[in-house]
Amino acid sequence: MELLPRSPAEFGSARYWDRFFCQRGPRPFEWYGAFPELCPVLHKYVRPRDKVLVVGCGNSELREQMYDVQMCEDIVNIDISDAVIRQMQERSASTRPKMSYLLMDMLQMDFPDAHFQVVLDKGTLDALLTDEEEATLSKVDQMFAEISRVLQVGGRYLCVSLAQAHVLKKAVEYFSQEGWVVRVHQVASSGDEQQFVLPVFVYVMTKFRKIPGSAAQILEICPEEQDKPMRVESVEQLVAAVKNRQHYALLCSQISKSPCREQVSLDLCDKESGKPRYTLHVVDSPSVKPSRDKHFAIFIIPQGRETEWLFGTEEGRRQLAASAGFGRLLTVALHREQHYEGMASIQAELSAKVMELAPPGLAARQQVPFLSVGGDIGVRAVRHCDSSPLSGEFVVEDVKGDGTCYFRRLIFLQNRNVVQSEARLLSPTPLPGQKKRRKDKKKASPTEPPGAIDKSYLCCEHHKAMVAGLCLLGGPNTLPGELAVLVVGLGGGSLPLFVHDYFSQARVAVVEIDPSMLEVATRWFGFSQGDRMQVHISDGLDYVAKLAAEAPAQYDAVMFDVDSKDLTVGMSCPPPAFVEKPFLQKVKTILKPEGVFVLNLVCRDARLKESVLATLRDVFPLLYVRRIKGEVNEILFCQPGPAGQRDPAELGARARALEGALRRPGQPWDSSYVLADMLQAVHIL
């Protein structure tokens, strides 16, 4: 039996609906939104003494159920289908005497002005507004004008809808421009199998007298999990907020039926501020054959560790899921702007929401474990927040790493998943949630200085490789002695500091474009200038160009560790201008003939990377590369002439000899840093 219309226009035809209800018979037809789901919202806006008009009533049981639970009884139902009006009159005449059914077109109603306190529409607007043709929009305007006419001031138009973007936008724009208050509720799902995957919404339009000359709009949205409405600034923001919830519903439906081929990422936002509170990644492990109780688990990433390879990369999360042995692992990253009480409160906050992301086949009421490293949520303390015109917003934060170590990090918030600079703390200051034993009972001073920086420890693997590249300097049987080193890019200053402290005869010049970074490095990362360490606030491009023109061949080593602010390019380090051929020729000019140019390259675009390498080969006859395991970074060692080529055995011997020279009495040395290991994987391009 064919009940669907031949064209969307038939949804507005009395003839179509007569045929529909005659063929369907007396069985109730609910488009979407059953009474148990809609009841909590309707209870807020329908009072027992209200006079209610239902437009396009059909044979839904909604108003009968409203009547039977005494939500209200004075209900007038209208429809353009004579067949359904007769059906409903027969069905309710004896049991619901105060409810009436009238054959009437909602575009031309016979009721007097201001006759109702509530107009209820369940799917009627959706059925009418099937397209945005002029004739359709004209009918919708007629519908809205009639609803406005028959409603009292303070009355409510309640529209149950799937909230297609053009439907929502039309309704919100019309009534907000009339000075009405507009609120959109998402209807909580009952959890049963539904005809529609998309969530159901109720638009609540409250009539106010229009104030001449006032352009103020009150637009709000109420997500299903909260009663308190959230104010939005524009129709576009309201439509976008609804769209986000629809996408989430589609995602939940999709991953509840089949495994994810690719990792799915989404943010859960704070109810008050609207800012991201949790970032979730859904990771399925098709190769894992989980036992009955290992289908699904939640892994809370400790604060401050979300940038680590295991938690911050697809491959790392895939490895984490496989080692955990669960068919689906949901990783949860915590945001620095948010406050968290502890694992128990996070579990209580997330329990209902994460179950919407459960895998297919999960047994009902199965306990889902919450996992973490060491069973806690980690520790993070933001020490400093600021912004600069060049670097944007940034933070300095102290975090607890794996084990008992604490680290200080510089993060640029435009790329918040990347640690810009990192240093290990020798004696960490007390962080929130951490107890510190004190012999006396005096409280710590709020001006207590931060923990000292461990300058002997290079946190970044690429910095270790860059320093190891200095083994390429010196003659066949000599190690580098007096060195002139130029570092472009200061960050927290750990790279130039290490070269300065361990190469006792080195003179280090640092070029940094952002003066804010010099302040951050000095105040928070233990950086200082002196006779052998000078910082020049300048654009690295201009500084090198000037040196090439005025003082060529003066540096033994030039190191580039400078990030790109343009996130649209597939190369985040360095900026593209730093690897253009004319500029690289200037870099070669300022190097001594036996010098080395060390470049930290972070490029995810394969074609762009090959182009960069080709340009480097054109300028520098000798090119080594050292790839950093588990990271995108590649360290390139470029030398002006082929005479400096060394075989792996010689490089290893030089590295061991240099490390021995650097390990001076009284000078601490990180035992995990073995220069020879850094050069083992080096090969010539």
Notes on the protein architecture:
- By secondary structure, the chain is α/β, with parallel strands linked by helices.
- The chain folds into three domains: 8-250, Rossmann fold, CATH 3.40.50.150; 258-371, Rossmann fold (3-Layer(aba) Sandwich); 459-684, Rossmann fold.
- The chain contains 19 helices and 27 strands.
- The strands form four sheets. It has a nine-stranded mixed sheet with strand order 3-2-1-4-5-7-6-8-9, with helices on both faces. Strands 19, 20, 21, 22, 23, 24, 25, 26 and 27 form a nine-stranded mixed sheet that branches.
- A hairpin with a 5-residue loop joins strand 16 and strand 17.
- Helix 7 packs antiparallel against helix 8 (235-257), helix 15 crosses helix 16 and helix 16 packs across helix 17 (606-619).
- The longest helix has 23 residues, at 235-257.
- It is elongated and about 105 Å long.
Describe the structure in brief.
This protein is of the alpha/beta class and 685 residues long.
> Any idea what the CATH architecture of the largest domain is?
3-Layer(aba) Sandwich
From the 3D structure, determine the CATH topology of the largest domain: Rossmann fold
Strand order across the biggest sheet? Answer: 3-2-1-4-5-7-6-8-9
The separation of the N and C termini measures 71 Å
Count the beta strands. 27
